[in-house]
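Give me C-alpha cells for this 832-residue protein.
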Amino acid sequence: MTNFDYLKKEKDFDSFVDIAIVAEKTYKIDVSTCIINCRRALEAGIKWMYSVDADLDVQYQDNLHTLMNTRAFKSIMDDDIWKRIEFIRRYGNEAVHTSTTKTASIAKICLRNLFYFTDFIAYCYGDNYEEREFDESLLEQEEVAPVKVVPDVDLEALIAENKSLKEELSSRRVQQQETYVSKPLDLSEFKTRKLYIDAMLMDAGWVEGKDWINEVELEGMPNKSEVGYADYVLYDDMNIPLAVIEAKRSCKDPAVGRQQAKLYADLLEKKYKRRPVIFITNGFETRIIDNDYPERRVSSIYSKRDLEKYFNLRRTKSHLNYIAINKNIAGRYYQEAAVRAVCEAFDKGNRRKALLVMATGSGKTRTVISLVDVLLNNGWIKNILFLADRNSLVTQAKRSFVNLLPDLSATNLVEDKENYNAHAVFSTYQTMIGCIDTIKDEGKKLFTCGHFDLIICDEAHRSIYNKYRDIFSYFDAPLVGLTATPKDEIDKNTYEVFELENGIPTYGYELAQAVKDEFLVDYKSIECSTEFMKNGIHWDELDNDEKEEYEETFVDEEGNVPEVISASAINQYVFNKDTVRKVLATLFKYGIHIDYGQKIGKTIIFAKNHKHAEFILEIFNKDYPELKGYAEVIDNKINYSQSLIDQFSDPRKLPQIAISVDMLDTGIDVPECVNLIFFKKVMSKAKFWQMIGRGTRLCPGLLDGKDKDKFLIFDFCGNFEFFRMKTGSATPNMLAVQGAVFALKFEIAYKLQALNYQTDELKKWRKELVDYMVSKVKELDRNRFDVRQHLKYVDLYSNPDHYQMLTYEDCLMVRQELAQLILPDEDEVSAV
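Here you go.
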C-alpha cells in the first residue's frame, strides 16, 4: 500500500498515478531512483493538467521547467504547492545528472511534496475527493511489492485523449480552486538551508566541502561573543571567498538577513582583501548585493564560473565617459548618440536596462554591434546573448556581428549544436528556453543565471514579453531592447519591462527624422479596396487601456483578424480568385518597376495565413506562367525558408515577389524592396509599423541609375483607414521599355497618316510598324488574367485593318489599355 493508491479510484488520473506509486515503492530500494520517479510523476501530473484545463496552453516547449513556469500555471497553482514541486524538480534534475548520493530525508520530502501536489489535483479536478494526510509510516513497510516500469507521458497524445474532458474538468477546477486550503510549508532555517538552498547550489554546480563551506566562523562581529557563523561561503580555486550567503527560513523575508550578511562580507573583505558578493535567500526568493548596482532579485545563486568572471571584469572595467566609437561600424550621428545614451545609462545612471526606439532601416543592429564593441573594449562584458523570435532574424543578426566583429566568437543555437561556449550566443526565445536546463559543460549547467553580461532583445514588442518574460527574470544581465515602433505607439508594458517612463526610451530616432536626414525613404500608400471592412472601429477612438485590451483580445501571432469582423466575409474576400487577380494586376500596373520598366521591383505580399499564401501563388502561376520563379511563398511552414529569404535578398536572383506570412514582417533587410501589399487585416499598430518598415531602406542606383526615393504600399484591407494614417491614390507607373516602344511606334504610325508623309519610303516604314504591332498583339497569351481584362483591345489591335485610319484617341487607348501587356523582344533587357 502507498500514499497514492487512493488516486486509482479516479480513472481520469491513470496517466500519472502509476508513476507516483512506483516512486514510493522504490523508496526502500534506492532513494535516488525514488527522487527521479517523483520528478517523473510530477511531470506526468502537470502534463495531465495541461491536457484537461482550458486555461493551460503549451506555448513553446513541453519540458517540465517551462510548463511549471508559465504565468497561467502559476496563477492556478497555490504558492506553497509551487514551492514544493520546485523542490522535486531541482532534486530530480540533480539525481538524473549526477552520481552524488542522496539522503533518505530528501527522498521523503520529495514524496511528501508530490503527495500534496496530487492532493491539489484530486481536490480541484477529481470526482470524489476525501481529505487525507501523508502517512510517513507507509514508507517503512518491509515487504516491497514488485515495481513495474511505467513509460513517460506523451503530451500531444494525452491532449488528444482528454479532449472530451476539457470543458467539464476546467469548469470544476475553477469552482473548486478557491476553496482549497494548502498544507503550510514552514521549514526551519536549518531545513531551508539544507534542502532548498543546497538544491540551488548543486543546480549551479557548487560542490559541498570543496568550494562551498557551511557555517564558516568569523571573528569580529559586533556582539558579546564577537564570533559569527556565515551560513555559506563560496570559494575560488585559490581559496579566496567569492560570495557569502545568508539563509533565512522559508516563511521569512530574505531582507531580514541583509545587515548580517553585510557584516560577514566586511569581515571576509578585511581578511582576504576582496569583498565577496552577497546573496540573501529563504530558498525561494534570492537577492544579490554585488557592490555595483542596488540590491536586486535574482533567480538563483551564481555559479563558480559566473562569480570568477564577475571579479575578472571588475578588474578590467573602465568608465564610459570618453568612449571611442568605431565609425566603420556605426558612423551616423544618431547611431553614435544611441551608443552614448546607453553607455551613460549603464555607467552614470547605474541602470541595467535600456531601450532603443529606432526606425527600421536606420541601423539598429549596427548600433548595438557598436555598443557591444565599446563595452568589450572597456571591460564591461564577456558573454553576450542576442534574442529574437524568428530563426531568420537570428541568422541575419549573427552574420552582421561576424562581419563587423570578426574576432568575437559567435554561435547560432538554432543551427549550431556544438559551439555553446562562444562569447556571443544568438538564439530564438524558444530555443534558449529549451537550452537553459539541458546544455551542460563538463557535467555542469552552462547557461546559469549569471552566464551572460549583456542581453540584446531584438524587436522588443509587448507580445514577446508576455510570452517569454521568464527568460529575462532567469538571466541576471543588463538588457538592451531594440524596436522600430515609434515611441508613442509602443505598448506601455514594454516600457515597464525596461523600467522607463512610458513613451520615453533611452534613445529614439523616428522614421520622419530619418527621411528628413535622407537616411531612409518615405512611403506612398494606396488604398485599393475597403468595402468589406466596414467595422466601425478606429484606432484613435480607443483610449490606451482599450488599445491594449483590443490587441491582447484579438491579435494572435499570425495576425489573424479579430472576431468582431466576420471571418466568413474576410475569407470570401481574400480567398476569392478575382480578388487575388485584381491585387496582382494592380501590382503589375501601378507598382514600381526596375530594369527600365521591364521587371517589377522586389515586392512583399503580406498574406493572412499559409493557406492564403499558397492560394495567391497558385493564382499567380496560372495567370503568369511566363514568369516562372518570380513569386515564392516564404513562411515557417516552408522547409529551408532561410535559403528563400537569402535569394529574395539578392537583387540578382529571383523571386521578385515574396508572399509572406509573418516571416518578413520584421527584421529582414532587403533595400531593393519597393512594393508592399497588405492583403490581410493588421490590428496591432506596433506590428503595422514594423511591416511598413520593410520598404524604408535606401538603395542607390536601383531605379535605372537613380536612387530609390520612395516605396509604395498597396492596402487592400483597410489598415490605413483603421489607423487613420495618410493615404494616397494609385497612379500608373512608367511603362516597361517594350510597352513604351510599342506606344511610340503606334504614335508614329498615327503621325505617318498625314498627307505630307505619303512617300513610298514612309508608306513602307508605316507598314513595317503596323506588321510589328499586329504581331506583338497577336503573341499575347489570351489565357493570362491581365490579358483577359483587355481582350476588347487585344482583338481590336491584332487586326491590321483597324490601323487604316488611326485617331489620337487610339494612341491614348493603346497606351492605357494595351502597352503594359506587350512582351519584350528577345534582344531587349530580360524581364526576368
